Amino acid sequence: GVVISNLLKETGLVTLDSGFMNTATTTSQITYIDGDEGILRYRGYPIDQLAAGSSFLEVAYLLIYGELPDASALEQFTTRVTRHRLLHEDFKSFFTAFPANGHPMAILQSGIAGLATYYQHTLDPKDPEQLELATVLLLAKVPTMIAYIAKRALGLPLLYPDSSRGYVEDFLRLTFHLPYQDKSVDPVLTKALDMLLILHADHEQNCSTSTVRMVGSSHANIYASIAAGVGALSGPLHGGANEAVLSMLDAIKAGGGDASDFMRRVKDKEDGVRLMGFGHRVYKNYDPRAAIVKDAAHEVLTQLGSSDELLDIAMGLEDIALHDDYFIERKLYPNVDFYTGLIYKAMGFPTQMFTPLFAMGRLPGWIAQYREMIADPTTKIGRPRQVYTGEGERDFVALDQR
Ligand code: ACO
């Protein structure tokens, strides 16, 4: 017979909540979401106000330290981050050690874990100075790593960061291989990418963030914990969705651009096909980030002078979905990733780089959540229980008697 009573015997109470639909794993002061109303706030500030008025590093500071920096605090923070953007020379060979067509998320995950080998004096999460330095090193080096991964895929040499430039501007220069003196990083791109990074910067206990906390709850160092978060983010139901949206739009375009046939397949659940970039565990209303990205997609594409058939297909899909009972009944609306890929594509990023860009944006959130978890004296190692549904006790049978 099936044995399910061990947990009940031990505790008198069993909660089985697959996917954590109703289980809070922590208290947190970082991000507030009201999924029914479509509200998202970082440390109390509405996401639309931050997207319109602040910069990514300012938001990183807010998430990590809890308050908006004044001008001098922001300048000091920016200086500390930008001066650490170089990677150790030995580390560069790391990027050529993988097949050039290997997925950037796999390389990024290993690279972040590997930072622990270069910065061994920053591994103790219980030492505030070490954790502070690790925070700065991660914010500084992860964009350089992402740029190098992009360059390596193209076989281009790796440029050195230029600390006289802005964080996002220089990331674009490194990625797109603009020479050192070149001042031509398009400010439209810099501003749009900065804003997209802000929108991705935190989203409370999503799959990757919960992973970071879970791994960190064993007091694993912050690099190991965030590398695990990168692994979680790579899945197509999470951060990989932005890449999946583009593949989906490309396939619809290649099939003649007929959105209605694709939507029929989605509604019939044919081969499990889903409308990627739609639906969210928490938002049962329009994702507030999606509304901002949709406007930005129009703006960026117009400013870059690139008309995009894929944007038209995307808007066609959204239009069908917003008026279709299947989507209305299930409260499925566009999420942040429905339109982001179109902007990244217009900027010139290859599709495989979309999810690493999500990781670059989510980094301050992961750091802030790891730090909050470590600082909380009530944190225990994460150790869920299970409801066992396997065999009851039975006697071992020797190999020659099976
Ligand atoms: N297309 C078609 N149907 C969908 C979709 C979709 N994108 N999303 C959910 N549904 C349907 C499900 O089939 C299910 O239908 P049923 O009641 O007939 O069985 C119902 O809506 C509920 O879906 P669940 O999968 O139970 O919802 P859950 O909260 O577990 O999943 C998720 C949320 C994973 C985001 C889901 O909506 C999805 O797969 N979306 C597509 C992938 C995506 O865009 N992911 C990005 C998420 S946001 C982020 O990470 C930034």
Present the secondary structure layout.
Elements: H1 6-11, E1 31-34, E2 39-42, E3 45-46, H2 47-53, H3 56-65, H4 71-82, H5 92-96, H6 104-118, H7 128-154, H8 167-175, H9 187-200, H10 207-216, H11 222-233, H12 241-254, H13 259-267, H14 288-303, H15 309-322, H16 325-329, H17 337-347, H18 354-375
Antiparallel strand pairs: 1-2, 2-3
Helix pairs in contact: 2-9, 3-18, 4-7, 6-7, 6-11, 7-8, 7-18, 9-14, 9-17, 9-18, 10-11, 10-18, 11-18, 12-15, 12-17, 14-17
The structure holds acetyl coenzyme *A.
Acetyl coenzyme *A (ACO) is lined by residues 19, 237-239, 241, 266, 274-281, 330, 332, 335-337.
Architecture overview:
The protein has helices spanning 6-11, 47-53, 56-65, 71-82, 92-96, 104-118, 128-154, 167-175, 187-200, 207-216, 222-233, 241-254, 259-267, 288-303, 309-322, 325-329, 337-347, 354-375; strands spanning 31-34, 39-42, 45-46. A 3-stranded antiparallel beta sheet has the order 1-2-3. The two termini are 21 Å apart. Helix 4 (71-82) crosses helix 7 and helix 6 (104-118) packs across helix 7 (128-154). It is globular. The chain is 54% helix and 2% strand. By secondary structure, it is an all-alpha fold. The model has no long low-confidence stretch (mean pLDDT 92). The longest helix has 27 residues, at 128-154. It binds acetyl coenzyme *A. Residues 19, 237-239, 241, 266, 274-281, 330, 332, 335-337 line the site of acetyl coenzyme *A (ACO).
